[in-house]
Each structure stands twice: as structure tokens, then as C-alpha cells.
Design goal:
Elements lengths: L1 H50 L7 H25 L12 H16 L2 E4 L13 H4 L10 H21 L3 E8 L33 E11 L1 H13 L3 E11 L3 H19 L4 H13 L15 E11 L14
Antiparallel strand pairs: 2-3, 3-5, 4-5
Amino acid sequence: MKKTRIILAALGGFALLGVSIVGWLLFGAFSAKSELTEDLDMREAKILQLTGAKIAPTAAALRQIETNRLTLANWMDGMRAAVARGDRAADTNQTDASFKSRMIDEARMLSALPGGAAGKIVKENFGFGYNDFITGGKMPTAAELPELQSRWADVVTFVKLFSSAGVRELLEVAPLAATEPKTGEQPANPGRRVAKRAKQKEPAKESRTVRRSYEFKFLADPAALVRVLNACAADSRFTLVDALTFARTEDEIANRIGESKKTEQEGKNRRGRRRRNVLAEESTESEAPRKGLVTDPAAAAPFAVTLRVTTVDFGTQTDVNGKEESK
């Protein structure tokens, strides 16, 4: 009997302990739920306070918005006029024969500009990138005449610019196919489904902006190269410098080192002669002036420059024979 009471007392103790643990867990869960409910109520109250507030622009704010809109519109108009002041269009009065004759006359004028190739900026029979029309017998077609007029006007402008900047010699002119900027929608990510749209987007309007690219190779001093870049930036024609590379045509330091080694080797070869002659030759060489590495910039070798530029027409349709001819 005593043993049975002990067992019952132990079972009762375990039951009481279990009930206490369950009660503690239920109390903790209820407390956490209460805290979350209070936090949620506070957030909801803040949202209702913001959404229920009366927000209305004042008369002063509306006037400022209109002033800013007008200021932006005026600035945009001014910028369009500034970047497009060098725009040109084809001369509709030109025929294929008259324009070919004009190209030849202007090529002669450009060939007579001062430079470092026998006193001229180019060598004889230079075609300025259009050998077929200038030195050959090809006649421009009616379809290519408008684009040819614009490109030839650009070439004339740049050659005059090079001569004014002091370029020694123009080596090559190459009209390039301009790369149009990419427009339109970006392609969707591969492997990702895109929902079909009920309405298709309207096709983009055709841009009136035209880009024309050129590559020029020439010889120029450092100061002349700087003047060329400044002139491109200051020209009324909207010009982008796409790429520029330059290098000395001769390595002066390597040439001087080679001369020193050659002189030293000649001196060693002469040491086999009589000592009297060797001493006389060495004394003569020591008295002779030696060339240093610091030389006159005017006598230094020029840079071989490759310049790639792009001109931009914004479609304002000014005359191809306008402002550029007055330069």
C-alpha cells in the first residue's frame, strides 16, 4: 500500500510539472502575440495618418513649377541651336558634272595649302579619300550626290583646319561608315518568359540626326596636335573625337645610344694603330661637341597621328555652302 502511494505521488508530481511547462509556453506565446498585435496596430495607425492627410500644392509652388518648366524649355531650345549651328544640307542646284568639277577645283586649292611636304600639306596627286572622283574618271550618281556633297564639305573643313593648326603633312583621308546609336527595346533575358501585351508599341519615329565618320592620318608636332584638337572642339560643326593615337616617327634616344655605341666601337678598332695616332684622335674626339638628348623641339621628329572623328547633323537643314566656306 505504501509503495502504491509513492508511485501515485510521483505520477502526480510529473503531471504537475508537465502542466506548469505547458502553461509557461502558452503564456510566452500569448505575450509574443500581444506584442506583434500592438506593433501592427501602431504601423496601421501611421499609414492611416499619412494616407488621410490633406496634401494640396500652394499657389507659390504652382508658380515655381511653371517657372521651372519655362526655364527648362528655353534651355533646351538654346542647346539645340548651339549644337546644330553647323548643320548643312545638300545643294539641290548641283549636278553630277558640276559637283565633280567643284571637287577637282577644291582639291587643287587644298593641295596648295602650306605644309611640310615640299612646302605643301599633301604630296602631288593626293585624292583626299576620293581618288575615284578627283584623280580618276568616275562620275557621281544622282543617288549618291547628296551624301557625297556633305562628306566632301566635311573633308574640306578638316583639311583647312589641319593646315591652320600647323600640321606638317596629311598622309591619308578615309571616310568611314558611321555606327548609329542603338535604339528600341532591350531584348528580354534568355530563359525568362515575357507576358504578351495586348497593345503593341508604336514604331519609333525616324531620327533626323545623321552621323558621318572619318579617319585622318597625318604628321604633326605636339603643339600642332593640341591646336587640332582644340579647333575640333571649337568648330561650329558638332564634332566628336572617337579615337586618337600618336607616336614618334623616330626614337631619338635609341638613335643617340646607337651613335654612342658606334663611336665607341670605332675607337676600339683604332686602338690597334700607333699610340701617337690614337692619342691624337682621342684628343680630337674629346674636343668635338657631343650631342645631348635634349634637342630643339622644332628639329625633333613629328608625331604620326591617327585621328578618328564623327560629325553630327541634327536635321536643321542649313546650306552646305554656308558658314564653313567663310573659314
